Amino acid sequence: MTKENLVTERTLVLVKPDGVQRGLIGQIIARIEAKGYSIEKLELVHATAEQLAAHYEEHEGKPFYQPLVDFMSEGPLVALVASGHGVIPGFRSLAGTTDPTTAAPGTIRGDFARDWGVSVQKNLVHGSDSEESAAREIAIWFPED
Ligand code: UDP
What we know:
This is Nucleoside diphosphate kinase. By secondary structure, this protein is α+β, with helices and mostly antiparallel strands. It has helices at about 15-20, 25-35, 50-55, 65-70, 85-95, 110, 130-140; strands at about 10-15, 40-45, 75-85, 125.
């Protein structure tokens, strides 16, 4: 691939309340930067009910939905926009699988998260799963963008 073909993507990352509460913001951001991605926007926020309803609309009605929204409201979270070639799949690779029990060592979830006995909700981070999701999610957390 030539340099001209490189497309810079943007993704929406959340350091969930468990990551903030456990003091892992710095280590998580360090991994994003160490991979060579740029941090374009960053904010510590206490999520509103409206933001969480929009962010997790695809999961509405599932058994884990309300406990997930409650957990995401427990304390502040960090919302950030990271950019770079392939950052959408790249960050999800850094994050590891949804279930921290099986997330590979070397990933954020694999290294820092574990099953706390309440579903798999406390897995430290969120990362957009497609360009469409990234655009939608960036607009939720950075509406001025
Ligand atoms: N989640 C949960 N129970 C489940 C599946 C998911 O609590 O059985 C939570 C978990 O925090 C996960 C989030 O819901 O990160 C969104 O789920 P998704 O399947 O989109 O996983 P992700 O893309 O975050 O890996």
